[in-house]
Amino acid sequence: MFFKSSKINEFRLWGLMFTLAGMGLMIAGTAGIVFWGQAGKIFAAIFMVIGMIGMLLSVGVYFWAGMLSTSAVILTCPECHRQTKMLGKTDRCMYCKTIITLDPSKATHMPAEDPVVD
Predict the structure, then answer these.
(1) Hey, where are the domains in the chain?
(2) Cα 1 from Cα 14, distance rounded (Å)
(3) What is the DSSP string of the chain?
(4) Torsions phi, psi of 81, nearest 5?
């Protein structure tokens, strides 16, 4: 994982990046009308289409992250004791960024057995 956050949050981050890039391209395209007049309309149209494609990509990424979120395993983080979602064999807590896993072969720390209190 590149940004050291949970996988679902990384997908949402990419959706946000596509949204901001698409909106930025559309705004930059309208600057062509302001600065170049009639010739800037073609420039604006091209950037408007590219910006719309970026916005549609963000919708797709957000939809994909939402679908993954519905099938994610919900568990309690051992560090912050909050409920978090996990994708795959290992993931990070959405809140405290602790690496969590359900696979014993990938675990780095095995919890000690709790003593039985009578």
Answers:
(1) 1-71, 73-103
(2) 13
(3) --SSS-HHHHHHHHHHHHHHHHHHHHHHHHHHHHHHTTTHHHHHHHHHHHHHHHHHHHHHHHHHHHHHHHTSEEEE-TTT--EEEE-SSEEE-TTT--EEES-TTT-S-PPPPPPPP-
(4) 60, 35
Q: Could you report the per-residue pLDDT of 29-73, keeping only the tens digit for each? A: 988 888 888 888 898 999 999 999 999 999 999 999 999 989 888
pTM, rounded to two decimals: 0.76
* Amino acid in the structure at residue 64: W
